[in-house]
Amino acid sequence: MDRSGGTPYLVVRRREALILPVAGRKPVAGWYQRVLFISRYRTAGVVDRTDTQTEAALEELFYPDKKIPFIDWEQFSGARPTVVLTGIITLLAFVTGLSNLSQTTIALNGPLVSVLPISVGFARFAGVLIAFLLGPVIVGLRRRKRLAWRVAVVALPVLAVLPLTTLQTTDIPLLLIILVTFPLLVRNRSGFDRSIDLSPLQIASLFSIVGVGLYGTMGAYGLRNQFLELETWGDAVYYVVVTIATVGYGDITPTTPAAKWFSLSIIVFGTSAFTVAVGALIGPAIESRMANAFGNMTASELTLLEDHILILGHGDLTESLLDTIPDDTAVAVVTPDAEVASALDTEGINVLTDDQTDEDVLRDAQIESADGVVVGSDDDARDVLAVLAAINVNPDVRIVAAANEEKHIGKLASVGADRVINSRTIGGQLLGKSVIEDDVDDSVASILDPDDTSGRKQ
Q1: Helix, strand, coil proportions of the chain in percent (round to 5)?
Q2: Could you tell me if 264 and 325 lie in one domain?
Q3: How far, in Å, are 111, 178, 268 from residue 183 at the CA level?
Q4: Boundary residue ending a domain (164, 191, 218)
Q5: What total number of domains does the chain contain?
Q6: Whether residue 318 sits in one domain with residue 275
Q7: I need a surface site. Which of 56, 204, 266, 371 has the fewest CB within 10 A?
Q8: b/e string for 377-396 if b means 16 or more Cβ within 10 A?
Q9: In this predicted model, what pLDDT tens digit does every residue of 377-423 receive, in sequence order?
């Protein structure tokens, strides 16, 4: 580097720093030079420096101690690979279980046979049963649910007992993958931090199923002398499940009036609890799926949108807006609320069930050809993001935003909204005007009393 002259330099920072003269700049008198540098983060700036700076200072500027790894190991050991490996374990457990079920006899030659009282029945059915258990667990892990992580942490060691008791050739791959996956599952526990939100009805239905199961099992075992072929706790569980499922094989039967009344109570309580639980747990998921299906515009309908008013979000103000827009004006609503979308769809309003702050969603809603955009959900923070997304996709579209709180009017205006309206402020002004002034403008009167077309106080 030339320290004597005032020639400006262009420093392009990559793995090596390249020092080049900056074209079109005259030398600066004295010991100062103007240095233009570009960092690896694609930021450029012009700084003044003196030639008294040392090489160590330049090294610190252009060669920081922070190192960039060539391989991102998180891609191979993070939460997503852990979920994939758990899925592979589920598949191998199912295949191993089917293999054990198809064999006439199973030899228990594993090292845990002498330590744990493992039965042949466990070795036959454990693989398939745990595989079915891990099915919904994988769905929960994909959604980063904490409960699914806890179940997986318990289920994988239990599943590892299977190959350690049979020690068959088909069990070795299952054992090896479990040994690899379990440490990753523990390591990535912070990645599965989402809770499962259950309604009071769902919680009550789960407790009712557990309560009926305990009641039936303990009662059947306590009355085992009044049943045929019911001798163990396993027989009691089997009898309760068969009775609630209304299968009725007939191998275990009550022999006394007390046992018969007890069996009837299991049938009534068990079927009722199971029916309520199915409706409470599965019903909301089915309703959400149906709402998404009926509350979404098709691709062909989206392409036909043109010269329309695009409403981003749904709230009390936009609900009133939909009632006042003429029928010959095309309208499309973007809202993430599936229930609202379904209700709007039944009213014949074009609706897209998705995030109104997503630019790709706005493109699907044909914002480029929209006459105007109305942003008016019940969340001002999301409205700010929706305004920014709309401007990024179509900078020329007119945007009118509704602020739920007066203090957020400036924020919505500063991010690019052409007009910001606060319904509370306007409503207060109209109320005051209607009380103080005897003669009210027709437009004001129509707002205050839509059914009164005279515009005057009667």
Answers
A1: 55, 10, 30
A2: no
A3: 22, 9, 46
A4: 191
A5: 4
A6: no
A7: 56
A8: beebebbbbbbebbbebbee
A9: 888 889 999 999 999 999 999 999 988 888 888 889 999 999 998 87
